Amino acid sequence: MKTIVSGLAIEYTDEGSGPTVLMLHGWADSLHTFDALIPELQGHRIVRLDMPGFGSSERPKETWGVIEYARFVQLFCKKIQADPQILIGHSFGGRLIIKGVGTGVFTPQKIILIASAGIARKLTLKSLLLRTLAKIGKALTLIPPFSLYRQEIRKNLYAILGSDYFAAGSMRDVFLKVVREDLVQFARQIRVPTLLVWGSLDSSTPLSDGEKIRDAIRFSELQVINGATHFVHQEKPHEVATLIKEFI
Fold it and tell me: Quick one: which of 151, 167, 168, 206 could link to 172 by a disulfide (CB 3.0–4.6 Å)?
């Protein structure tokens, strides 16, 4: 389905009946990331959307940060007359929930954070060296014959850095604004029961991030699924759905 919110065409789904669950996807993903969970969450109204700039939704006309996305989701819920009692967010979606609940934009009864982002990366000697090499490599791409392979070289450099910056395309300015913010201070303001679900092999948002978020949120518990990576909800949907059902 489509709706217009703040002048942006937004793709979303709204299915089932019962207490409302709002599901927010990760960076460069879409509402379909949760497809495997939906059949196991019957008895609820499940609302999902492609957030602006992702999936089939229009991108923001300005450079948004986390709070702008959170406020947009709030307006979206008002537009479709949804008052979510439960918020579920994966990665970037979890980032929105932490900031939104921590600032009072969202007022759910319970939240589930799946491999949530929100912990800013500390600069190490290794990361500084890699960034320096990347800058040197970027400069080289302006000089023939390297300029002929500029896009491929830049893609490989950012892959080495482990960054989604190159893949962000026209959303790079938004990406930079989003990832630079550490949300621990907002996690400390959350006072609703919180379930954190993590894959033991997550390299994008490592388990240590989950432990930091758990320690920051007073009423929270962390469940780790062995052998799963960052997309734990796709790799182990039954295990994740079972944890969610028990929690809610």
Answer: 168
Residue with tokens 């949907």: 237
Q: In what order do the strands lie in the sheet with 220-225?
A: 2-5, 8-15, 45-49, 20-24, 86-90, 110-114, 194-199, 220-225
Conformational region of residue 3, where left means phi above 0, alpha means psi within -120 to 50, and beta covers everything else: beta
CA distance 106 to 113: 14
Q: Which residues contact 29 (CB under 8 A, 6 or more apart)?
A: 54, 55, 90, 91, 92
Q: What digits encode the pLDDT tens for the residues 85-143?
A: 999 999 999 999 999 999 999 999 999 999 999 998 764 444 444 455 555 555 655 56
The two three-digit tokens of residue 85, written as one number: 């009692």
Tokens 């929100």 belong to residue: 118
Beta strand pairing call for 8-15 and 86-90: unpaired
Nearest alpha-carbon partner for 92 in 19, 5, 174: 174
Q: How many helices (H) and strands (E) does the chain have?
A: 9, 8
| Cβ count near 15 (within 10 Å) | 11
The three-state secondary structure class of 59 is: coil
Size of the chain in residues: 248
